Amino acid sequence: EGAEITVPAGFRVDVYAEQLGGARALAVDPEGVLLVSIASRGRVVALRDRRGTGRATEVVTILKDLELPHGLAFRGGHLYVAETGRIVRYRYHAGTQTAVEPTVVVRGLPHAAHHWTRSIVFGPDDKLYVGIGSSCDVCRERDRRRAAIVRYNADGSGEQLFATGLRNPVGLTFHPTTAALWATVNERDWPGGGAPPDYVTEVRHGAAYGWPQCFAQGGAFLRDPTFDGARGCRAMTLPSLELSPHAAPLGLAFYTGAQFPPEYLGDLFVALHGSRPGLPPVGYKIVRVRFRHGLAAGVEEFSTGWRDGERVLGRPVDLAIGRDGSLYVSDDHADRIHRVSYARR
After folding, report:
1. pLDDT tens per residue, range 234-276
2. CATH of the domain at 253
3. Residues whose CB falls within 8 Å of the CB of residue 69, separated by 6 or more in sequence, listed in order
């Protein structure tokens, strides 16, 4: 059975789509149609709700035979798709959900080893931001683009390291009013419960966030004793908000809709995919990060029930705000897309 998800009073959770084959990244097209990357099957699909019932009535494959597609982004009549080694731009017809005329705008990205996801987002500066994870748990990378966020022009030119020291930056989004970039980061995988915290952070241009030689814990940097190249950590930038070790924060989305109660506006939802088998059970939930004056001001549980003791019922991956203000959640364990809505009273 799928996840028995709980949400605050007044909210409800419905299955929007299921049996997609391992839903990962989400994006909402200009017509309000939800697109989903299915990395394990090399596809991108569109989920159409033709009847307005709050459940997809059609699943349409719009791209196939891709290599581990993950990130999706729209800009100026085009759909950008991040495969593990490249980013391809398609002319996108929103009325029919068709993607044609592929153009490779970024080629030669570091290949799948260890962290294979490539997340993308366009910034208010019209630049394309790409999150690239490390090739290892703790090591010195040969390719400077790994464990970093890289910035490009929309046509793929002008490659620039935006920020470094981010072991695996999976979720990328921009604050709706401050225009600051925010990211989720999965830290090193030391066995047991004593690993460094995963985190959510504002990402500043030119900043280094510690990996591999340093990690943040309790609001201060510590040196990694397993890394023989450790240097001082004073030049590193501390993350904005520490989470539990192994919580595996993936997708994130600022709430910009009009459906939820007004106190949710501008707050950040974060999907915690959860710890791997054999580790202490943490994550497996969606949290709400309250924002005040553009800064993270506290974190609280929003959606739980994804794990029942040792039994995993679901694992949230990515989040997207629908045109109607609903919150969509991909789940690659129960193989569903969930739709969280607010039932006005």
Report:
1. 899 999 999 999 999 999 999 999 999 999 999 999 999 998 8
2. 2.40.10
3. 37, 38, 39, 42, 43, 44, 63, 81, 82, 83
Name residue 127's amino acid: K
What is the spatial distance between Cα 263 and Cα 272, in angstroms, rounded to a whole number? Answer: 22
Using alpha carbons, select from 110, 302, 272 the residue that is nearest to residue 185. Answer: 272
Instruction: Identify the domain boundary among 244, 270, 302.
Output: 244
Look up the domain containing 239 and give its range. Answer: 144-244
Integer Cα distance of 20 and 70 in angstroms: 14
CA-to-CA dists, residue 138 to 100, 114, 226, 238, 279, angstroms: 40, 11, 8, 18, 19
Is there a contact between 38 and 59 (Cβ–Cβ < 8 Å)?
Answer: no
- Which of residues 109, 136, 161 is at a domain's end? 109
**Which tens digit of pLDDT belongs to each residue from 42-67?**
999 999 998 988 999 999 999 999 99
Structurally, the chain folds into a number of domains equal to 3
